[in-house]
Each structure stands twice: as C-alpha cells, then as structure tokens.
Design goal:
By secondary structure, this protein is mainly α. It has one domain. The chain contains three helices and two strands. The chain is rod-shaped and about 180 Å long. The relative contact order is 0.04.
C-alpha cells in the first residue's frame, strides 16, 4: 500500500514514557519504506518505458523522413513520366500529321496521274472509234466497190496494249 506525502505528514504517533512508542514508529517506517519502494519501482518502470517510447519515437521520426523523401521521389518520377509521355504523344501526333500530309499529297498526285491517264485513254478510244466510223462509211466512187477488198484498219499500239 503506497502512502502519499500528505498521509505521512498527518500520521499521529502515540507518545510513550520515553518518547514515541517503538512499535508505532516501526510500523510507520515500514509503511513509508514499502510506499517509497513501490514508488521507486514504478518510477524505474516508467523511466524504462519512457526510454522505449523515445527510441520508438526516434525510429518513427526517421521512418517518417524516409517515407516523406520516398513520396517526394515518387511524385517527381510520376511527374517526369507524365511529361515524357506527353512529349512522346506530341511527337507521335506530329509524325502522324506529317505522314498524313505525305499520304494525302501522294494520293492527290496519284489521282492526277490517273485522271490524266484516263483522259489519254478516252482520247485514244475516241480516235479509234473515229477510225472505225470512217472505215465503215462508204465513200462515193469506184474504189469502194463491194468486190474490192479493203484492208482492215491498223489499231494504234496503245489500243493493242489496253486490249491485251
């Protein structure tokens, strides 16, 4: 049982013939010693507990610093990754636009070439049809007799190439 300092001060010891009674003084001293021992042990335990908590606190503060620096590094790396991805996307988009312009330019050139070729072929076909029409219409005169053999008109080489 622990005693408070106020309880110790308010203890009344009985007086005997030669002073305080020995037995009462001895009991009070034993109680005070037990109380002091209990408080001393409790103080030592609390002191040990404070040391453990201080070391835990130091470890947690160090861990917090590490986590903070790790978080900052991770945020910085994520930002750099986003910037790198944005630059790469911009580069890819730029290349795609350039390739699209090249393909469009080539397609227009090919269309113009095909239109020109189509006009040339149409012109050749009109010429060939005109030759055929001219060969079929009989002209007035003795050279176009039914008995006379008319040589077949020669096809221009471009028409032979298209037919073959």
């Amino acid at each position: 049982m622990s005693m408070s300092p106020a309880e110790v001060r308010h203890q009344h010891l009985r007086r005997g013939l030669l002073g305080y009674k020995r037995r009462a003084v001895k009991e009070l001293l034993d109680q005070i010693a037990d109380s002091f021992e209990h408080v001393w042990r409790e103080r030592a335990e609390l002191h040990d507990r404070v040391e453990v908590l201080e070391s835990d606190l130091a470890r947690h503060v160090e861990l917090e610093g590490l986590l903070r620096s790790t978080l900052i590094s991770a945020e910085r790396a994520a930002q750099e990754q986003r910037e790198r991805a944005r630059r790469e996307a911009d580069t890819i988009i730029g290349e795609a636009h350039a390739e699209g312009r090249t393909v469009t330019r080539e397609a227009r050139g090919e269309k113009e070439r095909l239109d020109s070729e189509s006009r040339r072929i149409a012109s050749l076909l009109r010429s060939a049809l005109a030759l055929v029409d001219d060969a079929e219409t009989p002209a007035a005169g003795p050279e176009n007799d039914a008995t006379q053999i008319v040589p077949a008109p020669q096809e221009p080489p471009e028409i032979r190439r298209l037919a073959g």
